[in-house]
């Protein structure tokens, strides 16, 4: 479904759920937004806990990929817009009841802050980095002094960003599969898990990798709980929502969802991470890559399967 920006007085709608079929851009955008949110949540949290030295990858290294992840995600979103030249209209108003408005403004805040965070930690990647202009040196010094303030802002806005990636779907009342409050926390948990996997993948510190393996196991357990709770809610609801659940419980999306998302993206990574904690030699790239794959597939499958669920007329 392509995004439609329609401006007509008080009846502004940023997305029309009936016009087009969703392409790959929206699931990719939601995955990258969740990944960025997950990495920034850890960076901000451990900064506020004064554990920068204990978890250097989480605070100083992994966040360097966030600005570029967000840029790619925003480019994917731009490609999906039907009226690309009018994207700026999202920033001419704030509509508290519109998930798209929330997302646009939160991204407007998170994206520049992610560049600032990367800039003040650039010497963690390039130890000999030296700013050439005095104004840049002064800005670095200023933002470094305000790091805790930036961390609080990033923590709050990143949580909103992670939840927004699910709420964007759940706001579609016309699609019973998407019309559930579980998608917000589920996509947030999935993004945090993807962030933890990325930090594991990039870290060279055994203690840090071990800690994030434990964190990821806990978050995946939360994801599985939310998935079960979501299906239980569907099965205890109206017929159209029972039909939506049936898409994954014997229907056409059963194998893709349970194999790619649950088994490959959650259960197998947990098993491998537990084996790693038990001192078995497991290459960290395997569970980390599987978690990222499962997180991506979750967005694609929910996106495409949601189009097959509809109200009976």
Annotate the secondary structure layout.
Elements: H1 25-48, H2 56-61, H3 66-80, H4 99-120, H5 134-145, H6 147-170, H7 183-202, H8 206-235, H9 239-246, H10 254-277, H11 285-306
Helix pairs in contact: 1-3, 1-6, 1-7, 1-11, 3-4, 4-5, 4-6, 6-7, 7-8, 7-11, 8-10, 10-11
Written overview of the protein:
By secondary structure, this protein is mostly helical. 66% of the residues lie in helices and 0% in strands. The radius of gyration is 20 Å and the shape is globular.
Please provide a brief summary of the model.
The chain is an all-alpha fold.
Largest sheet features: none
Structural class: mainly alpha
The CATH homology group name: Formate dehydrogenase/DMSO reductase domain
What's the CATH architecture name? Up-down Bundle
Percent strand:
under 5%
Average of per-residue pLDDT values = 86
Rg estimate, integer Å: 20 Å
The top-level CATH class is Mainly Alpha
Low-confidence stretches: 1-21
| Helical residue percent band | 55-70%
| Pattern of helices and strands | HHHHHHHHHHH
Shape by Cα distribution: globular
CATH topology, anyone?
Formate dehydrogenase/DMSO reductase fold
Distance between the termini: 21 Å
E-strand count: 0
Oligomer: single chain
- Number of domains as seen in the coordinates: 1
Give me the number of helical elements. Answer: 11
Summary tags:
globular; Formate dehydrogenase/DMSO reductase fold; 313 residues; 0% strand; 66% helix
């Amino acid at each position: 479904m392509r995004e439609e920006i329609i401006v007509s007085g008080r009846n502004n709608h940023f997305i029309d759920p009936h016009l087009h079929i969703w392409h790959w851009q929206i699931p990719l955008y939601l995955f990258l937004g969740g990944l960025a949110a997950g990495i920034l949540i850890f960076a901000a949290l451990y900064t506020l806990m004064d554990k920068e030295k204990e978890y250097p990858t989480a605070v100083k290294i992994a966040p360097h990929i966030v600005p570029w992840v967000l840029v790619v995600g925003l480019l994917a979103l731009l490609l999906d817009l039907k009226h690309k030249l009018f994207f700026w209209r999202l920033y001419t108003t704030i509509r508290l009841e519109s998930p798209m408005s929330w997302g646009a403004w939160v991204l407007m805040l998170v994206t520049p802050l992610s560049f600032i965070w990367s800039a003040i930690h650039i010497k963690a990647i390039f130890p000999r980095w030296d700013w050439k202009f005095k104004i840049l040196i002064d800005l670095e010094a200023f933002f470094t002094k305000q790091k805790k303030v930036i961390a609080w802002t990033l923590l709050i806005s990143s949580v909103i960003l992670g939840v927004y990636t699910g709420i964007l779907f759940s706001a579609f009342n016309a699609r019973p599969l998407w019309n559930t409050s579980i998608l917000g926390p589920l996509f947030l948990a999935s993004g945090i898990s993807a962030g933890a996997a990325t930090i594991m993948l990039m870290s060279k510190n055994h203690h840090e990798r071990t800690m994030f393996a434990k964190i990821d196991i806990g978050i995946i357990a939360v994801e599985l709980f939310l998935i079960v709770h979501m299906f239980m809610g569907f099965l205890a609801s109206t017929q159209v929502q029972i039909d939506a659940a049936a898409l994954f419980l014997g229907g056409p999306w059963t194998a893709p969802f349970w194999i790619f998302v649950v088994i490959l993206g959650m259960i197998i990574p947990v098993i491998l991470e537990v084996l790693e904690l038990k001192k078995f030699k497991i290459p960290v790239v395997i569970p980390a890559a599987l978690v990222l794959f499962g997180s991506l597939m979750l967005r694609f499958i929910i996106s495409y399967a949601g189009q097959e669920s509809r109200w009976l007329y």
